[in-house]
Design brief:
Elements (H helix, E strand, L loop, with lengths): L3 E7 L3 H12 L4 E4 L11 E2 L1 H8 L17 E2 L5 E2 L3 H8 L8 E3 L2 E6 L2 E4 L4 H6 L5 H16 L18 H8 L3 H11 L13 H17 L4 E4 L5 H12 L3 E3 L6 E4 L5 E6 L2 E10 L15 E16 L12 E5 L10 E7 L10 E8 L5 H4 L1 H4 L7 E12 L8 E3 L10 H15 L15
Parallel strand pairs: 1-2, 1-13, 2-10, 7-15, 13-19
Antiparallel strand pairs: 3-4, 5-9, 6-9, 7-8, 11-12, 12-13, 14-17, 14-18, 15-16, 16-17
Length: about 450
């Protein structure tokens, strides 16, 4: 291969596919390779055969689960926030023409031993068992303060400074109870732990406003989800890249990342052939992740292993109003942990499994040497479980920004329940590769009711 590319992208995870799509649109000559024979890498959606091959080598899927092709099981459960950054990129690139979205029916939070719906309307808020009548008034004032805040109008600040005052001080200003603080910080701002309380309030303000604006956009919940599973997302960005001249090669083992005597990236060798490019972008698995070599290009993110259990159910999750899809958040304080537990459930209405099957994925950040026991509180909410597949994965990050050797490495997919951190990584890598900030236009996304 004598051709020289601007960028070689390794791995077809969502982060890598978004980047190859954006770089192709920007006029870069992109070659995209993956050792797997399917799109999505760690963020793929697998059919039954692929799922059993991955988790139960040699075992056939049981016949009562239905047809192989009816399944698209996400390895990493995340929902799309309706007003979030991923939605803006989908719309900006027009990738929405390859995708259909359906909203997630409800968002729930675990409190005092029971599941309660996160209110999506004022009427639901008034009826919600999450707060007593006086606390509801205090919370109403808090939300009115957030909605009314204008940076350039001190009259809306009530003596608070979002950039200096901690979130703790803001909560105390409105006299909000610990349970309400939990609900706001974890079910709305979607923090994984309580570290945010001692930090300036601005990021929490931004997150809650994002949540409420996403909720008001389509009602019911702030989340949307692509029909046929999350694996549709990387495929759609791959399609975008191909339209703009990107070249794709699946099922290509990567033998070597070639560098010159100064350590600068030269090319990639596959099957005895070396293809050259000016820069390479890839997920951590192509740069030594899992091989704990000293002085490597990737590092393990401290204390960040994620345990996930993919569970097949024959019923909706009890206590969720028979919803066909939900997110349930178990705040860490409710189960004496440092990190929240998340449950994401989708069903045949999203074209990801056979009729009358529900797929619930329970996940959290590992805190002990018995990871599976840490998600028991989540598993216990599901009712009888038909099949369960458990994975424990380390999270990796690059050790350098890539500018010195033209090797740009993305981050592993974290424990958050949405794609906002993935898009942060896309913005970060895009700027390092091109030297320019990614600017995204605003338009609307069509969603099926």
């Amino acid at each position: 291969m004598d051709e020289v590319y601007d960028v070689i992208v390794l791995g077809t995870g969502l982060t890598e596919c978004i980047l190859s799509g954006l770089l192709s649109v920007a006029g870069k000559k992109v070659l995209h390779m993956d050792r797997n024979d399917y799109y999505g890498a760690d963020s793929a959606s697998l059919n039954l055969t692929q799922l059993y091959r991955k988790f139960r080598s040699g075992q056939e899927p049981p016949a009562d689960l239905g047809r192989d092709r009816d399944y698209a099981v996400d390895l990493i459960p995340k929902f799309i926030i309706a007003s979030g950054e991923l939605t803006k990129i989908l719309v900006h690139t027009d990738v929405t023409r390859y995708l259909e979205f359906k909203q997630i029916a409800g968002s729930f939070v675990y409190r005092d031993g029971r599941i309660s719906k996160v209110p999506s309307t004022e009427l639901e808020a008034v009826k919600s068992p999450l707060m007593g009548i006086f606390e509801k008034r205090r919370a109403k004032k808090f939300f009115e303060f957030l909605q009314g805040w204008k940076d350039d109008d001190p009259a809306t600040h009530q003596g608070l400074d979002l950039d200096k005052d901690t979130m703790k001080k803001v909560y105390e200003h409105f006299g909000l109870e610990p349970g309400t603080q939990d609900f706001i910080g974890h079910a709305m701002a979607l923090y994984l732990d309580d570290d945010y309380i001692t930090k300036p309030a601005r990021p929490t303000y931004d997150r809650v406003v994002l949540y409420t604006s996403s909720m008001s956009r389509y009602g019911k919940s702030p989340y949307i989800y692509p029909l046929y599973g999350l694996g549709e997302l990387p495929q759609s960005f791959a399609r975008l890249s191909a339209i703009y001249g990107g070249t794709y090669m699946l099922d290509k083992p990567i033998d070597e990342i070639v560098t010159d005597s100064a350590g600068l990236f030269v090319g990639v060798t596959s099957g005895g052939e070396t293809v050259k490019a000016k820069q390479v972008i890839g997920d951590p698995s192509y740069f030594g992740a899992g091989k704990e070599a000293e002085g490597g290009k990737v590092r393990v993110v401290e204390e960040s292993k994620v345990v996930r259990a993919i569970c097949f159910l024959k019923h909706p999750i009890p206590g969720t109003e028979n919803s066909d899809s939900v997110q349930i958040i178990i705040p860490q304080n409710q189960v004496n942990r440092r990190n929240d537990i998340y449950i994401a459930m989708v069903s045949s209405t999203h074209n990801v499994c056979a009729k009358d099957v529900y797929i619930a994925i329970v996940s959290t950040i590992v805190e002990t040497d018995k990871p599976e026991l840490e998600i028991v509180a989540g598993l216990n909410l599901l009712g009888p479980i038909q099949e369960k597949f458990v994975s424990i994965t380390s999270l990796y990050a690059p050790t350098a920004d890539g500018r010195s050797d033209n090797i740009f490495i993305t981050r592993s997919y974290d424990a958050t329940s949405h794609f906002e951190t993935v898009v942060d990584d896309v913005h970060d890598v895009y700027k390092r590769v091109t030297g320019e900030t990614l600017v995204v236009k605003k338009r609307e996304v069509e969603v099926q009711e």
